[in-house]
Structure to design on (161 residues):
């Protein structure tokens, strides 16, 4: 199924078989492999990670692939200023009549707008999740995806999406 640009879609992020978050987004494009959507920060409050603050008015342009083990989200402030790129390591996106569903595999990466900061996140959470014992193939793919994201960030290719 290919989504139509300008249409509305639900994005669902699952973790360990349960829905973690669900939110509406607008389809920017879908080439059959990569789906791009845009969505506002969905909470009425600020979430401060220490290295970035997500706050009301922020807009996320989110890139999901049907054949890659990650999603890349460009984060812009309400005034249009790029804050950076937040990347989730996930199983490949499932796109269907109910929207886009992605399974979070715990690992994340952040790149600041100026490229000076690249952070690998939640590796301890990934280890504690048990995925390496439960699904070693998926765990290996997740680690490879995080390595690929870091290489793209450090080479300046992440921001070129």
């Amino acid at each position: 199924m290919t989504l139509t640009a300008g249409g509305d879609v639900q994005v669902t992020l699952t973790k360990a078989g349960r829905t973690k978050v669900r939110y509406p987004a607008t389809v920017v494009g879908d080439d059959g492999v990569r789906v791009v959507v845009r969505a506002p920060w969905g909470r009425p409050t600020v979430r401060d990670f220490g290295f970035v603050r997500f706050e009301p008015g922020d807009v996320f342009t989110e890139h999901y692939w049907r054949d890659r083990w990650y999603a890349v989200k460009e984060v812009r402030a309400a005034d249009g200023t790029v804050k950076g790129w937040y990347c989730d390591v996930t199983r490949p996106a499932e796109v269907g009549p109910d929207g886009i569903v992605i399974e979070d595999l715990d690992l994340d990466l952040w790149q600041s707008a100026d490229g000076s900061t690249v952070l690998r996140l939640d590796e301890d959470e990934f280890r504690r999740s048990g995925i390496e014992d439960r699904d070693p193939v998926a765990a290996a793919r997740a680690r490879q995806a995080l390595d690929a994201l870091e290489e793209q960030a450090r080479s300046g290719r992440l921001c070129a999406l």
Summary: The chain has a mean pLDDT of 96. Residues 62 and 73 are 4 Å apart (CA to CA). The longest strand covers residues 99-112. The first helix runs from residue 123 to 128.
